[in-house]
Structures are given as structure tokens and as C-alpha cells.
Amino acid sequence: MKTVAEIEALLAEVKDPEIPVISLRELGVLRDIQVEDGRVEVTITPTYTGCPAMDVMRLGVEKALRKAGVGNFRVRQVLSPAWTTDWISEEGKQKLLAYGIAPPPHSSDVRTLTGKGPAIACPQCGSSDTVLVSHFGSTACKALYKCNTCKEPFDLFKCH
Amino acid sequence: MMTREEALYRFALRMGDNALVLSHRLSQWCGHGPVLEEDMAQTNIALDLIGQARNYLTYAGELEGKGRDEDDLAYLRTDREYTNVQLVELPNGDYAFTIARSFLFDAFHLPLLKAMASGKDERLKAIAEKAVKEVTYHLRHSSEWLVRFGDGTDESHRRAQAALDELWRFTGELFEADEAEQALAKDGTIPALADLRKEWNATVDRVLGEATLKRPDDGHMAHGGKRGVHTEHLGHMLAEMQVLQRAHPGAEW
Prior knowledge:
CATH superfamily of the largest domain in chain A: Fe-S cluster assembly (FSCA)
Structural class of chain A: alpha/beta
Helix content of chain A: 25-40%
Shape of chain A: elongated
Order of helices and strands of chain B: HHHHHHHHH
CATH class of the largest domain in chain A: Alpha Beta
CATH architecture of the largest domain in chain A: 2-Layer Sandwich
Oligomer: heterodimer
Number of helices of chain A: 5
Strand order of the largest sheet of chain A: 6-9-8-7
Strand content of chain A: 25-35%
Order of helices and strands of chain A: HEEHEEHEHEHEEE
Number of domains of chain A: 2
Largest sheet of chain A: 4 strands, mixed
Largest interface: A-B, 23 and 26 residues
Number of strands of chain A: 9
Radius of gyration of chain A: 17 Å
CATH superfamily of chain B: Ferritin, core subunit, four-helix bundle
Number of helices of chain B: 9
Shape of chain B: globular
Number of domains of chain B: 1
CATH topology of the largest domain in chain A: GMP Synthetase, Chain A, domain 3
Number of strands of chain B: 0
Radius of gyration of chain B: 18 Å
Largest sheet of chain B: none
């Protein structure tokens, strides 16, 4: 029988299929793990309502549990409280940056609230001379930017 | 007098139908967008809306208690059984028309969801709390493009104004509450739809002002979508959307 800590360690291997450097825990999608009478219950929450990666994440959790010999489990999906990019861990943000994706600003940033948007540093060269190309990028969670210094396009994990 | 369960069922179905029909219309831009970024934007928005539709229709199916799931409700109802407002079913037209249609709906959708997020039904609250964040981006997107068209070239201004003039008569229905919506507003599950008009007016006037577009005069307003009476366009759209499940019931892939 596995403990919560062991299950947690197991699930650290389950990554976001669209950003395969960050785990579900670091992304804030993995909300809770309960072990009761040998039965494991894992709670996850979607990033975006229509995020097609959600089913793959659920499958990833199920596969990891089965592989470790855990048969008695349930993966529960909850909507509330609604996921926010503020739940992405510091370590997760560093991994996004190293992967070439600018991490999201905090949702309480006053500039985010006024819709003006904070200056986003280019994940390639670090320049803050960047410009928004589109609020909608290659996946639901990203916006498209370009850097005026190194001239490279890049994704921002957008504030949510 | 309808029961609370029935009122909730009808409302969840309405929200699901609005989201699903608009989502399908926007998805028709996939591969046809005027620029790549807009192709991606519309398909991203369509994806948000289809996620919301799934949540509402799943809930509606549970409330109805006849064993229908999201797919049964989406693929096996006729146009007369769809209860979306007519605004969202209108064909895409040119890009100004698509943007204006989205803008008029988004400006209503966002305050509705914000109010629902503090309503009395836990399930609707959870769906709305999530959707608010997504629809905030939708309204920002449609507003920015409407300004760009209105305050752009003579041609883009002309097209945006023509789209608004054509769409205006479909906006009245947004604020007309049917029996279910009246019952749910009374007990604080959803807001009174008429109360959303103030914020809608403020958004519309602000954005149209910035876009140098003229707010059309209120004249005859079309309605009927909420009780299943639609424009001729919805049937055609559903025929295409539903063809596979109609021809091969229960098909999976």
C-alpha cells in the first residue's frame, strides 16, 4: 500500500503533454491526493475549460498509477476553485523560462488588471523590449509575443 | 408553474446551446482566417466555448434525468429543440460581421457569467467562475478588432457599420427572460437579464465610440430562438454538425 508521499512522487513524473518539462503539480493542475483504506483518490482541475490536454493529463495519471501497481484509484475532476496561473510553482516558472516560454505575471499585478499588461521579458535574450502579437497562441494557455531586440517570436504563458 | 429542477435544466441547456452554436460558427474559420493569428484566435475561442458547452450540457442531461449525455444533447436534437438566441447562429459573413457578432454577444456574456459566479447553484457557479476568465479574453479580442475596423480604412469602417446595422435587431432577445430565467432570477440563481443591459450599453457605447461607429437605433427586434424558433441558418448548420451521428448513431473514434 502506498502513502500519499509515495503517490505524489509517482505523479511528479506526469508532465503537461503540451509543455513536457512541467509536471501537473508544478502547473497547479494536481489539487489533492487522498489515500483511504487502500483507495487512492487524485483530484485534478482543468487549466482552461476546453483544454484538450486535460484528457491526456488524466490518462497520464491513470497510467502512472497502474504502472506502479496501484489498482484501486479514482481520478476526480473539479472546476471550483477555478485554476489560476498563480498556482504555478516558482520551480515551474523557472522550467517554463528555460523551455523558452515566458512565465505568467501574477494576476494581482495592477497592470494586468487594467489590461495594459506588464512588460514581458524575452525568454531568449532577456530584453524587455517586447510586443504582443496576439492574445491567442499555439495553445489555449499561451499568448504570442515577439522580441524587438533579438527579433525572435516567443510564447507567454498568459495570466489567468 | 415549473419546478426548480426544470428551470435549471432549461437554463443550463440555453447556456450550453449559446456556447455550442457560437463555438461551431467560430470553428468554421479554421483554415480560413484572414491572417494566421486570427485563425488561431478564433479556434482558441471556439475551444473555450465548446468546453463551456460540454459542462452545461452534461449538467442539463443530469438535471433532466432521462439518461441523455452531452453528446446526445448536442448531436441528436433538431433545430426546434435548440434554445440558443438567434444572434449566435447567424452565418459568419465577412470578418467584420463575425467580430461584431462576437462583440455584441461577449459584452452580454461576461456580465452574465460574473453574476452567475455569485449565484445560488453550486454547479452553475463553478462553471461560470471558470468561464469568466476565458470570456474576459473573448471580449477584449472582439472589442480590439471592432475598434481596428471602425477606426481603420473607409472600407473596414463601412463593413463594420453594415455588420452592426444588420446584427442590431438580434440583440433584443439577449435580455428577454423566459419563464425559466424569470424563476431563477427570482431566487438569486442567475441575475435578472434586464439588469445586464446597463453594463452591456456601457460596453457597447464605449467601444463603438472608440471605433467611431454609430450605435444603430432600436427598431424591430427579432426573437424566438429561446423557444426553438430559429432563422433558416441554424438547420443548415446543424445538418453539417450532426451528419456523422445521424448517419452512424453512436459512432466513436
